[in-house]
Design goal:
385 residues, alpha+beta, Butyryl-CoA Dehydrogenase, subunit A, domain 2, Butyryl-CoA Dehydrogenase, subunit A, domain 3, 3 domains, three-stranded mixed sheet, 9 strands
């Protein structure tokens, strides 16, 4: 970390200043037109904040995950969504496993925003949660790999220059363990032959630029390979703690937004000649949701601090994601109930954020899979799959 590391309060204030230029009306309009929030993302990239985890020698901010979590969380707390741009912060895999040449070439361009690093192609129609059974293949052919297969639910593919792709390079029946024989590739999307690469939109309930990707005998350069062939699954896992912590921070941001919004509303909405917030039936759910969001925030801070100190943090990062996703969803429901019918009215933004925060129970990892990780890897219970 740099000697000029900003305090968390400073970071929060700076990010909030950018977010204030993009109020609820902006996000609502983008949501109703299903448009990518380019203006917001451009400004945030130009500000440099999304390069938080890129070391200074590559032109980034050189901050820790604790600071990156503050940035991601503040975007959601301000009523926006970090989802359209958070890929730009997921640096762990490249920092740890890309070659020196790849790091020297790509990291400064990602830090400056010249290249958008936003597409992560893992999920497939026949292998969602069970990643190791994915069917996309990359077969070595001289100085190239030939890619065939399909990816599902891939975010931001139309708004990214780079695609991080997970594909099988050794057939499943030829590897000792299912986690072997998968490889990661960093691919420049623009250079791809349109005959072999197609992006098709998938309509989902939030504004997310969600897509299917099709690979049909697509030739990519062998230089796209990250690290060693066959080690991609492990490399991907290495990046997951950062992703879990940043997503958890977004959930906390959402939770705080819901509680602030609902609390303000409860103070001013008068029914039976008194503010609804005077009723304990309104107060208690808000108070409980507040307690749960703030507890989750502590686990986010703890997991980020462990990560930044180079300590193991798998359990904490997973617990942070679990607790924060649950807390933001609870807060969303409480806000919806507090607003009554107005929660459904688009102009209050509650329904938009309600839809958005629901995703965190499913993606990028579902709640069940986190529970399974904690049960089997941390508590040592027998494996269920
Ligand atoms: C809007 C959106 C954006 C996304 N963006 C991306 C992206 O950019 N890149 C990408 O690669 N993926 C992306 N995803 C995919 C996301 O990561 C997957 O949807 C998620 O991992 C779950 O996979 P699945 O949908 O195939 O569910 P499935 O694997 O079919 O699981 C269905 C349900 O069964 C449960 N389940 C499955 N097995 C077990 C078990 N053994 N025990 C208990 N419960 C189990 C799961 O928890 C889940 O609730 C996105 C998804 C959405 C909806």
């Amino acid at each position: 970390m740099t000697t000029n590391t900003p305090t968390h309060d400073e970071l929060r204030r700076w990010v909030r200043e950018v977010c204030e230029r993009y109020p609820g009306e902006y996000w609502r309009e983008k949501d109703s037109k299903k448009e990518y929030p380019s203006e917001f993302v451009d400004e945030l990239i130009a500000s440099g904040y999304l390069s938080a985890l890129i070391p200074e020698e590559y032109g980034g901010f050189g901050l820790g995950v604790s600071e990156a979590a503050v940035i991601a969380g503040e975007i959601n707390r301000a009523g926006g969504a970090a989802g359209p741009c958070h890929g730009q912060m997921y640096m762990s895999t490249l920092l740890r496993h890309a070659s020196e040449e790849q790091r020297d070439y790509y990291l400064p361009k990602i830090a400056s925003g010249e290249l958008r690093f936003q597409t992560f192609g893992v999920t497939e129609p026949n292998s969602g949660t069970d990643t190791t059974r994915l069917q996309t293949t990359a077969v070595r052919d001289g100085e190239h790999y030939i890619v065939n297969g399909q990816k599902m639910f891939i975010s931001r593919a139309n708004n990214s220059d780079l695609l991080l792709l997970l594909a099988r390079t050794t057939p499943l029946d030829e590897v000792e363990r299912r986690t072997h024989g998968l490889s990661l590739f960093l691919i420049e999307q623009e250079a791809l032959d349109p005959e072999g690469f197609e992006i098709q939109p998938v309509e989902v309930m939030i504004n997310n630029d969600t897509n299917q990707l099709f690979f049909d005998n697509l030739e990519i350069s062998a230089s796209c390979l990250i690290g060693e062939e066959g080690m991609g699954f492990r490399y991907l896992l290495d990046g997951l703690n950062t992703e879990r912590i940043l997503i958890a921070a977004e959930c906390v941001g959402d939770g705080r937004w819901f509680i602030e919004k609902a609390t303000d509303y409860a103070k001013t909405r008068v029914v039976f000649e008194r503010p609804i917030g005077q009723n304990q039936g309104i107060q208690f759910p808000l108070a409980r949701a507040y307690a749960n969001v703030e507890s989750a925030a502590l686990m986010v801070e703890r997991s980020a601090a462990l990560f930044d100190a180079g300590e193991p943090c798998g359990a904490e990062a997973n617990m942070a994601k679990l607790l924060a996703a649950d807390a933001s969803w609870e807060a969303a429901n409480v806000a919806m109930q507090t607003f009554g019918g107005y929660g459904f009215a688009r102009e209050y933004d509650v329904e938009r954020k309600f839809r958005e925060t629901r995703l965190y129970q499913i993606a990028p990892i579902s709640t069940n899979l986190i529970l399974s990780y904690l049960a089997e890897h941390i508590l040592g219970l027998p494996r269920s799959f």
